[in-house]
Design goal:
Strand content: 15-25%
Number of strands: 24
Protein name: aldehyde dehydrogenase (NAD(+))
CATH class of the largest domain: Alpha Beta
Organism: Salegentibacter holothuriorum
CATH superfamily of the largest domain: Aldehyde Dehydrogenase, Chain A, domain 1
Distance between the termini: 83 Å
Keywords: NAD, Oxidoreductase
Oligomer: single chain
Helix content: 25-40%
Subunit structure: Homotetramer.
Largest sheet: 7 strands, mixed
Shape: globular
GO molecular function: aldehyde dehydrogenase (NAD+) activity
Number of helices: 16
CATH topology of the largest domain: Aldehyde Dehydrogenase, Chain A, domain 1
Bound molecules: 2-aminohexanedioic acid
């Protein structure tokens, strides 16, 4: 254990979460096994080894899918509120283990402890939501055109759901999918990120314990571990009717094509290129808080992170100066230490991408306003700490069009009407989150109108990140079109059936067709 790990109670957190030095990364619930290579998980906080996880082989996967498929056949017959009761108990455990899990998320992924706790809170919230939902899952009834007929629709569980999640939200995204899928009556197989394998095992440990206590069939919460190759096996498997994948646009295109080729369903939550429009009527103080948290929170590694600020020329200098000033106050360092605002990037590859984005913006003619750079020396030994940077740039720069998962903020000017700002905001291939800062009702409503933001999320007077679980989460265009979490996102985890019942002694045909024998 490293000094930081000792000081911030990581050893105890690992113990509370049932983690060993080496863990099996394959599980069908009670049963944990794994015969693949070992992944070593190093913390980006201090570069220390946290623990090891054994990966899933093709044979291991076969055991998982067979068990999940068999388990589903029983699970689907449980009344949904009983499934909700299991999720409620799982949630009790999340509440009990919020601190150790939040701490592990922070130490293994590098986000601040506050944000680690926030992520576990999202899990708790979605479980609460799912428990209520377990007494609903309702379809519509409609009137039949035929006398003595009744028509309605009902939702049945779909089957085995494959979940592929990313390192940046290593636990919440899993729970957005599983909490809903479980109450819907599905079995879930989770491939977490190979960059955060210990948090995946920790979550599986919690689910496994609660599920075993409730005699939930084996396989309903399953885990597989490894790189894209094991994900590919699951994506191509026709025994998995739905693949929910969160990650890069590049990965999403591969997954979407593989799933579509077998006519499966996919739920994609891919990259964003989120902008805040700042109009002449904006509250500057709130704009600064929203923009800075959006750009540097999670070290710029949220898919909802603020990448672009589109500022009206009349207040451009004022907003620019206020944001540059705020960046000077940022404390970068150990994310477990609550005095710091910004932790490390996930790994050295991410640092390279960050550096290359800064080089490219200069090459394309951008103007650096807040200098970036990799931090060295005491406290920065992992080599993953970078300075959040700001560049003045044009929207059509290649690098601005591209999502860089790092704290690099591009700022640009617009003139005239808010429609000019909207053109810039919508002028990217991604369509996840967007925001406008304004106290002008007309501008706000135009931003929300059919001619306004083309994103899945459009906020007024808050930033682009930090969505609540109650709304459907996801985006348009190359963000993939999927919706997870709240509202009616649950429907994707179920199959809809339209039922027409004839309670007469006749057999009248629809559309008035006569067919007499
Ligand atoms: C993600 O980055 O993949 O809206 C999810 C937010 C968080 C979730 C982000 N609730 O910023």
């Amino acid at each position: 254990m490293s000094e930081i790990a000792e000081k911030f109670g990581i050893k105890q957190a690992l113990k509370d979460l049932g983690l060993q030095e080496t863990n099996n990364g394959t599980s069908t619930g009670k049963d944990f096994f794994s015969s693949g290579d070992v992944i070593e998980s190093y913390s980006p906080v201090d570069g220390a080894l946290i623990g090891k996880v054994k990966t899933t082989t093709k044979e291991d996967y076969e055991k998982v899918i067979t068990t999940a498929t068999a388990g589903f056949k029983e699970w689907r017959t449980w009344p949904a509120p009983q499934r909700g009761e299991v999720v409620r108990q799982f949630n009790d455990e999340l509440r009990r283990l919020k601190e150790p899990l939040g701490k592990l998320v922070s130490y293994e992924m590098g986000k601040s402890y506050q944000e680690g706790l926030g992520e576990v809170q999202e899990m708790i919230d979605i479980c609460d939501f799912a428990v209520g939902l377990s007494r609903q899952l309702h379809g519509l009834t409609m009137h039949s055109e035929r006398p003595g007929h009744r028509m309605y629709e009902q939702y049945h569980p779909l089957g085995v759901v494959g979940i592929i999640s990313a390192f940046n939200f290593p636990v919440a995204v899993w729970s957005w999918n599983t909490a809903l899928a479980w109450v819907c009556g599905d079995a879930c197989i989770w491939k977490g990120s190979e960059k955060t394998p210990l948090t995946s095992v920790a979550c599986q440990n919690i689910a496994a314990r609660v599920f075993a206590e409730n005699n939930v069939p084996e396989g309903i919460s399953s885990l597989i571990t490894g790189d894209y190759k094991i994900g590919e096996i699951m994506t191509n498997d026709k025994r998995v009717p739905l693949i929910s994948a969160t990650g890069s646009i590049r990965m999403g295109k591969i997954v979407a094509q593989a799933v579509a080729a077998r006519l499966g369903k996919s739920l994609l939550e891919l990259g964003g290129n989120n902008a805040i429009i700042v109009t002449p009527d904006a509250d500057i103080k709130n704009t600064v808080i929203g923009a800075v948290f959006g750009a540097v929170g999670t070290c710029g590694q949220r898919c909802t992170s603020t990448r672009r600020l589109i500022i009206h020329e009349s207040i451009y200098d004022k907003v620019k100066d206020a944001i540059v000033k705020a960046y000077k106050q940022l404390r970068i360092g150990n994310p477990l230490d609550e005095n710091n605002h910004v932790g490390p990037l996930i790994d050295k590859d991410a640092v390279k991408n960050y550096q290359s984005a800064l080089d490219k913006v200069v090459e394309e003619g951008g103007n650096i306003l807040v200098e970036g750079g990799v931090l060295e020396g005491e406290g920065y030994e992992s080599g993953c700490y970078v300075k959040p940077a700001i560049a003045e740039a044009k929207n059509d720069f290649k690098i601005v069009q591209h999502e860089t998962f790092a704290p690099v903020l591009y700022i640009m000017k617009y003139s005239g009407d808010v429609s000019n700002a909207l053109e810039l905001q919508n002028g990217v291939v991604q369509g996840l989150s967007s925001a406008i800062m304004t106290n002008n009702l007309r501008e706000a409503e135009r931003f929300l109108s059919v001619e306004g933001s083309d994103c899945g999320i459009a906020n007024v007077n808050i930033g682009t990140s930090g969505a609540e679980i109650g709304g459907a989460f996801g985006g348009e265009k190359e963000t993939g079109g999927g919706r997870e979490s709240g509202s009616d996102a649950w429907k994707v985890y179920m199959r809809r059936q339209t039922n027409t019942i004839n309670y007469t002694t006749e057999l009248p045909l629809a559309q008035g067709i006569k067919f007499d024998l």
